[in-house]
């Protein structure tokens, strides 16, 4: 199995939905899209080998991939959507019972780095968010005392959902469960870039905002950074308060909330069953 299928506990969530072993998920016969992007569903340096099925969240990703000549796509919806199907909303998690904002600063990753002014972002958050603020840092920034300390010194609650893992090691299979619990306790979700977390929050009823100084990648990503393209593609999703109906429409499409398969269908698509559903 491609190790990225385990990132954020995706394989574990899909296995649980299908009634399989969620602790040791069976091998997936292809590569699952691991995060939202405006390209073909996969990140830089992560081109799936020819012949491997590309399991993407939405038909939008499939169309973009086929425009550049890629094939072997299967649209299955996002693992997040399957998590929501297994974790219905509980009392105390309804939008009218929540408070505060959870903010996700745009972050670095294991094979790259970013630059930006956290002080400027902190000032913008303070000027925008009236209620209590939780800042969720990626594990790399969370482990940097100077970054984590800056947000703590600003009076924010600072958390981390865990590690996505590398080569089947270090994966926190409860990552998305933790993220879901946090989103369901906050009224708003916000970030300084349009990212996966904004759509996750919107899918569970959070109001949303995308604003503030954006961080920039230092390395050449072959155009994948796509900062300005995203702004042109979704201008209405860049505001301190995003219009709810527009956000809901894009969220449904990009997360594949209307693409969910039955357990039998998903098992067949992932190569876990030979029985035609």
Describe it.
- It is a single chain.
- The protein folds into two domains: 99 residues, no CATH class; 160 residues, Rossmann fold, CATH 3.40.50.
- It contains eleven helices and ten strands.
- The chain has 277 residues and is α/β, with parallel strands linked by helices.
- The model has no long low-confidence stretch (mean pLDDT 89).
- The protein starts with 9 loop residues before the first helix and ends in an 8-residue tail after the last helix.
- It has a five-stranded parallel sheet with strand order 7-6-4-8-9, sandwiched between helices.
- Helix 2 links the parallel strand 2 and strand 3.
- Name given to the CATH architecture of the largest domain: 3-Layer(aba) Sandwich
What is the percent of helical residues? 25-40%
The overall strand count is: 10
Please tell me the total number of domains: 2
**Termini Cα gap:** 23 Å
Going across the biggest sheet, name each strand in turn. 7-6-4-8-9
What's the shape?
globular
CATH topology name of the largest domain: Rossmann fold
Question: Given the structure, what is the number of helices?
Answer: 11
Specify the biggest β-sheet: 5 strands, parallel
In short:
With about 280 residues, the chain is α/β, with parallel strands linked by helices. It is about 35% helix and about 10% strand. The longest helix is centred in the middle third of the chain and has 11 residues, at about 120-130.
Give keywords.
277 residues; alpha/beta; Rossmann fold; five-stranded parallel sheet; three-stranded parallel sheet; 11 helices; 33% helix; 12% strand; globular
